[in-house]
Amino acid sequence: MRICRIRHRDNLRFAECVGDSLLLLPRNWKLGDPYESGSGAPSVSVSAADFTVPVNPSKIVCVGRNYAAHAKELNNPVPASPLLFLKAPSSLIADGDPITIPSQSSQVEHEGELGVVIGRRCKDLSESDSAIGHVLGFVCANDVTARDLQKSDVQFTRAKSFDTFCPIGRFVETSSDVSDVLLSVYVNGSLRQNGRTSEMIFDIPFLIRYISRQMTLNAGDLLLTGTPSGVSRLLPGDICKVQIESVGSLSNPVQAGETG
Ligand code: ZN
Fold first, then answer.
1. Distance from the CA of 43 to the center of ligand 1, in angstroms?
2. What local confidence, expressed as pLDDT, does residue 260 receive?
């Protein structure tokens, strides 16, 4: 099942995508609420829809250096336990919206990542709890990063949380097995990143259990699972596309911010 969110008569509404049609979910429906596929109300076609981001997370939890080849390209050691940081939810933008290069940075880079959308509240999951059972689905994501500020600040908050620094795809894909799928990033059509999710140092169930022991994960929260090698600089005028097998794709133009 593919879940999206659209602007519909001055409201934001979740919808299920079936072929080229969208079925509207009940007005008060939230991510993680029960829904039987096919039971929504018919509405506009995909081509006529005005899509927005399909999540409204209380937090975006990210994992740094979760692919060994990416840790190596930045001359960082492979971590012994997940390196967690947060990205501000205000950095979210939709498929097609522009990534804005802030004037404070001269090295903004793409990080194509598999996003995990939590479907059920989880706290202190044990080894015997099903971590995947708390997942609603998966999205394409881009953990856009001001690499120069990440290095100079040491803390990641500023480098990761500028407005527009978290593009995510239109659809939450609920039924895919993403344990070994290809993740690729293209800039202006040329391949920059290419890795398989099976190369993650800490896999998705491990990450969910680990994070749930530091903070409660709520339905709708977003987890970004790290990026493969090949990160590179984005410049105004570029088009950055993230593609994940069996999940979908995400494409954003890049523009310069105000100077000053
Ligand atoms: Zn990242």
1. 36
2. 52
Report the alpha-carbon distance of residue 238 to residue 98 in Å, rounded. 10
pTM of the model: 0.96
- CA–centroid distance, 10 to ligand 1, in Å, is 34
Consecutive H or E run containing 206: helix 204-212
| Among candidate residues 171, 129, 139, 175, the one with its CA nearest the CA of residue 1 | 175
CA of 162 to the centre of ligand 1 (A): 14
Look at phi and psi of residue 194 and say left if phi exceeds 0, alpha if psi is from -120 to 50, else beta: beta
Which residue type does 15 have? A
Dist. CA 69 → ligand 1 center (Å)? 13
Terminal-to-terminal C-alpha distance of the chain: 45
Sheet with strand 239-244: strands edge to edge: 99-101, 248-256, 239-244, 182-187, 190-196
Which structural domains are found in the chain, ordered by start?
2-52 (no CATH), 60-256 (3.90.850.10)
What mean pLDDT do residues 37-63 have? 94
